[in-house]
Amino acid sequence: MLGFDRITFDSQVMGGRACVRGMRITVSLLVNLVANGMTVAEIIEAYPYLEPEDIPQALHYVAWLAEETVYPLEPVHP
Fold first, then answer.
1. What is the pLDDT along the chain (78 residues), one digit of tens a residue?
2. Topology classification of domain 7-63
3. Counts of helices then strands in the chain (DSSP H, E)
């Protein structure tokens, strides 16, 4: 996961979910805000402890995850 220095994981913070810089702001929250039309400026206004660089890195992290290859399990036939 090189290059994602703002994305952190801590089992004591938000159950170990991907967060921004150790805060209780999850990557999924940021992605949902962007998906619902909020601009970076609006997100920073709503969450002033975030930095503008946090949002694009969260989006890049999710894009990286989406590149993963998923191998569906084959159904077991009795």
1. 568 999 999 999 999 999 999 999 999 999 999 999 999 999 999 999 999 999 999 999 999 988 877 677 777 776
2. Arc Repressor Mutant, subunit A (1.10.10)
3. 3, 2
Consecutive H or E run containing 33:
helix 27-35
Of the candidates 32, 28, 23, the one whose C-alpha atom is nearest the C-alpha of residue 51 is: 23
Rounded to an integer, what is the distance from CA 73 to the centroid of its chain? Answer: 26
How far is it, in rounded angstroms, from Cα 23 to Cα 21? 6
> How far is residue 15's CA from residue 7's CA, in Å, rounded to a whole number?
14
Note the pTM of the prediction, 2 decimals.
Answer: 0.80
All structural domains of the chain with their residue ranges: 7-63
